[in-house]
Design a protein that fits this description.
Elements: E1 3-9, H1 15-21, H2 25-36, E2 43-48, E3 52-58, H3 67-76, E4 89-92, H4 94-104, H5 116-130, H6 136-155, H7 165-177, E5 184-188, H8 192-203, E6 208-213, H9 216-226, E7 229-232, H10 233-238, E8 245-248, H11 259-268, E9 274-278, E10 295-299, H12 304-313, H13 315-337, H14 341-366, H15 372-400, H16 405-414, H17 417-437
Parallel strand pairs: 5-6, 5-8, 6-7, 8-9, 9-10
Antiparallel strand pairs: 1-3, 1-4, 2-3
Helix pairs in contact: 4-6, 4-13, 5-6, 6-13, 7-8, 14-15
Length: 438
């Protein structure tokens, strides 16, 4: 059962394209429901953030065939097949595993070391798990990926003093206005990203902060936490002329500020400069706004120069993280390759043989009067018992595993075969840690 990944990110697609493929939470749930009835997939997880849109899937087709997943990727976004082709990356098996482990470790993020990606991957996995769109392989893959993300943060300093898109946006505002204590700001959107942005603005002494949000109660909550003034989204848009800095990060599916609105705002401001940072995907502010006089608009792709400095500072920690990822990829591959029937049957028989041989040896130690011939008879009988007990389960497993991976997984679980793999992994890690200390 091949693991397939189709996706695009800030590495391969400009924000104009990422706008078109961003999926809100409700759209992701709808897409996962459609996926279950499409017949193309066995399992799937959708990951959609401001910088990436990806579908992880297991299929029953040829290992190298990513066409069904790519076709479906276009369909869920309402795009003609092939229109996204120049921006997509296509991966299978080991490359998918490595990519996800790097993503969750923030090694593939625009802001290396940022903390939000771990929660975003967890939310994507739980959403898929909640509608039973994921299964044995992807459940194991994403659960392990989340552990890898935590491991990287525990064993490296890649997240020490970590930046985020929010902090980078505020840094850009500081470069423009120098001293934020002399200026006022409005935050449009009070989600996790908006809350982080408010925190950074307050830390740098913003004089006045308005928090506008579609859900007013949430605006009150965030504004109260940071000494700001709450506003509904509509009220906030009416008050934009009062502030010098606007940072927008809503989950709206379309622009909430267009060129005509901005012309009106600038008329009231008498063309006093205003600084807008749009860190939402899809974007909240129409790109045409940047052509309005004295309106300085930056989107998430404009933050790259600030991000580049952050990446250079974290290179050494990134190298440590890459080594950890390499080791974890190898360990996951051992389990993944072990899902095929033949290795599982071999491992099961080895497991049974170990138990059989141990019990026979203990019996012989208490029956020292037995002759060599008697010992041979007992040994042969114990082997025959094991073979007969395992014959039907293994025969049925070989018949069913081609269509039902759950039989294979259940057998491994019931006999604790994966526990043996975990013990081996722990032994390896212990040896590696000892070598590192030396």
């Amino acid at each position: 059962m091949p693991i397939t990944l189709i996706g695009l990110s800030h590495h391969t697609a400009p924000i104009d394209v990422r706008d078109r493929v961003a999926l809100t939470d409700s759209l992701q749930e709808k897409a996962l429901s459609l996926l279950k009835s499409s017949g193309h997939f066995v399992e799937a997880v959708l990951l959609s953030t401001c910088n990436r849109s990806e579908v992880y899937a297991t299929t029953g087709g040829e290992r190298s065939d990513t066409v069904p997943v790519e076709t479906w990727f276009h369909e869920i976004h309402g795009l003609s097949h092939g229109s996204l082709a120049p921006y997509l990356y296509r991966m299978t098996d080991e490359k998918v595993i490595r990519h996800l482990f790097r993503v969750v470790s923030s090694l593939d993020s625009m802001v290396m070391g940022e903390q939000q990606i771990l929660g975003q991957v967890r939310d994507a996995y739980l959403r898929s798990l909640g509608v039973q769109a994921s299964g044995v392989v992807l459940n194991r893959l994403f659960e392990r990926a989340l552990e890898v993300g935590k491991l990287v943060r525990e064993r490296t300093d890649i997240g020490a003093g970590a930046l985020s898109v929010s902090s980078v946006a505020v840094d850009l505002a500081r470069k423009i206005f120098k001293d934020l204590r002399r200026h006022s700001a409005m935050l449009i959107g009070a989600g996790e990203t908006g809350e982080l942005t408010a925190q950074y603005l307050v830390e740098y002494g913003i004089q006045r902060l308005i928090v506008a949000n579609r859900t007013y109660e949430r605006a009150v909550e965030v504004a109260g936490r940071f000494g700001g003034t709450p506003a509904s989204l509509e009220e906030g848009l009416r008050k934009m002329h009062e502030v010098d800095i606007v940072i927008s990060s809503t989950g709206a599916p379309h622009c909430i500020i267009d060129r005509e609105q901005m012309l009106g705002i600038m008329h009231v401001r008498r063309n006093k400069p205003i600084f807008l940072i749009d860190i939402a995907v899809p974007r909240d502010i129409d790109p045409q706004v940047r052509h309005v006089y004295n309106t300085f608009l930056y989107d998430i792709d404009d933050l790259r120069s600030v991000v580049a400095d952050n990446t250079d500072r974290r290179k050494k920690e990134a190298e440590k993280a890459e080594r950890l990822v390499d080791g974890e990829v190898g360990r996951f591959l051992e389990w993944y390759r072990g899902l095929s029937v033949t290795p599982t049957v071999a491992q099961l028989r080895h497991h049974a043989e170990t138990i059989r041989a141990g019990e026979v040896e203990r019996a012989f130690s208490r029956l020292s009067h037995l002759s060599v011939k008697d010992r041979e008879v007992i040994d042969q009988m114990s082997r025959a018992l094991v073979n007969k007990l395992l014959h039907n389960p293994t025969a049925r497993l070989k018949t069913a595993a081609s269509t039902e991976l759950y039989h294979l997984y259940t057998l491994r679980h019931l006999f604790g075969l994966d526990d043996e793999t975990v013990e081996k992994e722990q032994e390896k890690r212990g040896s590696e840690d000892s070598a590192d200390r030396v």
